[in-house]
């Protein structure tokens, strides 16, 4: 089991503007994001639907935002980690950094 305190360190990764971790029911575990209740609901609904389609093959969900600070949702067990990306970093570099970070937590 991954420690939530370890996951919260996602905010220290270059390119992370904001983040939120929610359970499958949308309950906020921790957050550093605008409109956390709205984001928590969106993340839980998106993950529920994505898991129904992709099962365990889901790596992440991507939503471009009008502000150009895109949001990515990563499954972390039965939780969803929403991460908002700064404009300055490329999408693929950003995703690789987050996936590497999560993999190190799961497989230290």
| Number of strand segments | 5
Shape summary:
globular
The gyration radius over C-alpha positions equals: 13 Å
Strands ordered across the widest β-sheet? 2-1-5-4-3
Portion in beta strands: 25-35%
Give the number of helices.
3
Mean pLDDT: 89
Total number of distinct structural domains: 1
Could you characterize what this model shows?
The structure is a single chain. The protein is α+β, with helices and mostly antiparallel strands and 108 residues long. It has a single domain (4-106), classed as Dynein light chain 2a, cytoplasmic (Beta-Lactamase, 2-Layer Sandwich). It is 36% helix and 27% strand. It is built from three helices and five strands, in the order H-E-E-H-E-E-E-H. It has helices spanning 4-7, 36-54, 91-106, and strands at residues 16-23, 28-32, 61-63, 71-76, 79-85. The chain has a five-stranded antiparallel beta sheet, with helices on both faces. A hairpin with a 4-residue loop joins strand 1 and strand 2. The protein is globular, with a radius of gyration of 13 Å. It starts with a helix and ends with a helix. The model has no long low-confidence stretch (mean pLDDT 89).
